Structures are given as structure tokens and as C-alpha cells.
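Recall the central idea of this unit: under ordinary conditions, the amino acid sequence of a chain determines the structure it adopts. In this exercise we apply that idea directly, starting from the sequence alone.
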Amino acid sequence: MSTLTPGPIPADAPGPTPSVAAEPLRFDTKIAVLLRADLAPWQRLNVTAFLVSGLGATLPEVVGEPYEDADGTRYLPMFRQPVLVFEGEKETLRAAHGRALRRALPCAVFTADLFATGNDRDNRAAVRAVPTADLDLVGLAVYGPRNAVDKVLKGARMHP
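Accordingly, the structure predicted from this sequence is:
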């Protein structure tokens, strides 16, 4: 993994490859987050951020190139495609989780127990302590072929 240098970049440093302006890019994959509808606004933001970090850290193909502004200042890369956010009831999350596991799609989970922990070690221990069928899911992130992710999210609605 390369490191990014803050501040101006020397003129001879390689920059991002210019993109060719053509037709709009349509992805054959989808990144989606499903949130439980009863979460407070701060919880929705927190859960979404945690969930997508798992995808970005594990699946290098979802991360694009670093950004650079007109002054040559470089910025960290982001996902190469949109993240769609959905919401649903507790039962919708449970069903989506089961479908994601059956399809072996990469997914990240956030359980209600994680709101009471304060660090990564305790977060992992809280999830590890509960059998799959009993996880109190408040969020799920999933990545995969568009069709498969759509089927996983059956019954969910776009986040308002």
C-alpha cells in the first residue's frame, strides 16, 4: 500500500490517470448498507461508517484511486462506486443477513451490543459471544453482483 504525502506534490511526481469522458459508468456490482429503521440519526451515521470500513479494508477492488486537486494536493482514495443506503425493520435485517450468508457475499454486521462498547477488541468479543441466529442486528453492509445484492435486500426500502 502506498503512502500519501500531504501538501503540494512535486511537478515530476506521477499523478492520477485522467479518465476518459465517455458514457456514464454502470457498475455490475453494488455496495449496500441496510440499517434498522428505529435507529437514532447519530446511530445511523455511526453504523454506516463502521460497516463500510469493513468493505473498504477487505475488498481492494471497491476502492478507487487517490484524489488530487488542481493545486496538486493529494487526498485519500474512496469507494469507486456509490454506496446505497436502505432501511428496514428488525425482521428485514435478519432475513437479509441470512440471504447474504447463503449467497456467500462479503458482509459486515453491526449489532445493538456494539453501542455499549468502546473499542475494537470489545466490539469483536460482543459479536463473538452471540450465535449467528441470535445476533441483534442494527446494520448490515454487503457487496457483490448487483442482482445478488438486490435479492439480499428484498423487502428493504431506500433510506429517506
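The longest helix spans residues 41-58.
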